Amino acid sequence: MRKFFGSLAIALALICVSLEAHADDTLFADLGGKPGINLIVTKATANFLADKRIAATFDQTNMVRFKAKLAEQLCAVSDGPCKYTGHSMAAAHKGLHLTNADFDALVEDLQNALDAAGVPFRVQNRLLARLAPMQKDVVTR
Amino acid sequence: MNCRLPTVIVTILSLFADSSTAYAKEKPRPRDWADSARLLATSGVSQVEGAAGGGLAPWAVITGYGSRDSIGGNLHATYIRLPDFSLRSGGIAVGLFNRLELSYTRQTFDTGETGPKLGLPSNYTFNQDIYGAKLRLLGDLVYDQDTWLPQISVGLQYKKNDRGSLVRALGATSDHGTDYYVSATKLFLAQSLLVNATLRETKANQFGLLGFGGPRHNNYSTQFEGSAALLLSRNLAVGAEYRTKPDNLNFARENNAWDLFGAWFINKHLSATVAYVDLGSIALQSKQRGLYLSLQSGF
Known about the structure:
Helix content of chain B: under 10%
Structural class of chain A: mainly alpha
Distance between the termini of chain A: 66 Å
Oligomer: heterodimer
Radius of gyration of chain B: 21 Å
Strand content of chain B: over 45%
CATH class of chain A: Mainly Alpha
Order of helices and strands of chain A: HHHHHHHH
CATH topology of chain A: Globin-like
Number of domains of chain A: 1
Shape of chain B: elongated
Radius of gyration of chain A: 19 Å
Shape of chain A: elongated
Largest interface: A-B, 58 and 48 residues
């Protein structure tokens, strides 16, 4: 009996440790890997351009390049096999006078895209938690 | 833990930076005074005294959906059906620049058929006006995902009971009083979990409905209120709360309260909360547990 419970305890400890270790590493996989991220990016971009609150900020944007860079971003932030090669946040947003309302509008458009791409709510929140701290460098108004 | 900080917006604006000059020459965008910008559910619901929070406890969040450049506000109506009493409340609240919250709530405690057991007429009501103010000191519930720091607010609730002579006859020292509180609320977004802890200095008996202070204890006492909520979807949260209460009067004991709740955020203009609440013994009637229903409408 003691041996049984001892082995069970060790097994549970190992399972817990392995769950802990993998908890963040699988966000890329939970988003659907590269195909999933491409789907998210396509839908999110369509949402941004259709959103009256922030659509004007894309008037001068090369959307083909934008979608490629966005996919790179989401892959990198979710611990996928990509490297983000864009500008730093502070540099990119300097002088653009974005507000918290602009930031929140974009988050909602991204949430809608994640819903449409079939990403579960709890997985969405894991991604948003990694993006949220960027608010302090992005929002300058 | 991964520390890399790329972002969707960085990507958009890194491409945009080259033509930022062109954009900067356009007219500045007009300010939207009622932008309803904050994310759904992130300002909680209206707690029983009218502050933004859960059902029983005020939270550090500022009511409404206005961003820090905007205002928000709402009306709420709450009904609590207990075995021997009912409690109705209704009120209005405004949130200013995600910084200051002001609220007014009127509570009605209806003794129904229990009135005569207490030597009162049937359907005798105790009413209370509650004027609330809350100030966010620091932190942002949603954005602060890279720190342990919670959003922290301080608040007060000035309460005035309309049954002065009766509550004094029951042993209360006063028919009015002010509660002071500090709330720390943290959203662990990666776990879809919100937790809140509130400390309240109060003399109120049964939230103030039976006056303030009494023969057992006539000074301020420190009470604790905790909430935990799990976000199930953008529209749905479930949770539990626990609120300790003073026990100042001799004629009847007062217990701590708890609830289990479900909040449905239909959209930014309407939410509905259903809870099972246990308020313990009230005015000698024990086991006052029942249904809590609340609606909030605003922007």
